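Morning F.,

Quick status update on the modeling queue. The single chain you submitted on Monday has been processed. Sequence for confirmation:
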Amino acid sequence: MMSSALFAGCFALSLTASAALPSARQGLVQVNTEDLSPEVALSGDARGWRTVAADQVNEGTGPYWLRTQVDVPPREAGAPTPALALSVLGSWEAWWDGGLLGRNGQVGRTPSEEVPGRVDALLPLPTGLSAPGPHVLTMRISAHRLGFQPVGTVHYMQVGEAASLAQMRMLGLVPALCMLGALVLMGLYHLVRVRLAHGGLATLLLGVLCLAAAALVLMESWRGLANYPYPQHALRLRLQAAAVLAVAALLPATVHAAFGEPLRWLRWVGLGLGLLALVFVPGFDAKNSVALGASLVVSTALAVRAWRRGEPGGALGALAGLCFAGTLYLLEPWGFSERGFFVAFGGLLVCLTAIHARRQRHQQERFESATRAAERLQLELLKRSLQPHFLMNTLGALSEWVETEPAQAVRFIEALGAVYRHLLAVSGERTIPLARELELCRAHLEVMGCRQGTAFQLETEGVDLSAPVPPALLHTLLENAFSHNRYVSPHTFRLESSLVAEGTGPRRRYVFLAPPGTGTRPGGGEGTGSRYLRARLEEAFPGAWRLEDGPTDAGWRTRVEVPA
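Structure tokens below.
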């Protein structure tokens, strides 16, 4: 009889209070920061209580009281008793229709008195107080160890079947965890390519971007995977924000590197303005959404510019992936990092990976073609250096010097041997230091000086002796000069080098000037020497070199530009 009377009294109290209470279904709760006893807080007295939005509850460290009306949905006869799912950043005690429902941690007036509760809890409702309809939920909350100033400390309140609530929570994690595995595998694949296949900057950035996106998905899933104590929530949010900033910076950088955007400032200005706006945005979720939105806008602008420049194939595919991600972002901008991100960026990164793989295959085909052409043309150049006419003239001159000028013969033999030693040493290399190339050129000038009975010099200005160049690059230019000119007096060849800022990075420019001789024949064209130069440059710097030549008043001028 006593228990029945107590139940009836509590139920009558809940009905009386619920008539005046705001409803959680409407997103409203009442809060009271006074130090009330449970009896007073549960009495239904309206004095000292104020109504606020549920997602804006932030009453400091507390303890404070919260109450609202929660609806129990209808259920079939014989269905399990429902449960109440709560997510509150703090320690709390909960009463349901005036009866104690459960505790999460220990509410305290000081940090030492408080025992932190976990961020999520699932409490079964009492069998006698789970009838469909409105019920009164009252909570006493403290949050001394939060570690940051949140927009709201109450995340959700929901009544339902316990098994269904747990299943919904786990099913929400499955797609994100699948995408997490895919992103990790893609990231490791690209980093391995950088390590083993000498991938470029775009490959490295794409790999790091995949891992950064995986880290963001992991931070979003951490809450569902490990129901941690609420003080760890601040750590999770900060790690999540760091992952968002990494993704926001790496995405346009990857698009920039993939398509060789010539205006470097465009990426940084756009990102800078977007990230500067984060200072004025309250809350972690809003900051994350603004950062990702700015990143998508800048990346889309870069992809549009690449498409308008006529970048082959890839620009349109990247633009399609960015538009897909942007559409999902616009559907829910403030919750994008929590719900739409793993779908949007997963699809986008798959597109970027496919585009990158296609471009890599194209570059590999160009490299292999250039290598085969360079090897074939190298054999032709060696055959030309050993042709019978050259050998007969060389041996005839050598025979005469042996009899008349032995010192000159020794000098010529040493110079000729030096030329072939250098050619044999560098012929199999992709690039060699400029110092070795200059040694080969000076040895060749020594040979030609002996043959022509005069002196030739090679002057350099601004050169970096350690800079990589294709083997026999300058040597071929010298051979072309002697093929198209007859030099009967001392002449000086000049090589100037300088660094220029152009495109996506600094470039090294070489200007070679061959002076005019007597009996000059028109140069240029696509002879063996010119084809060898282009093949070697393509092999060493695929798609990133430039070769221009033509006559000037001072002689034949050749300009070569390669990445620094």
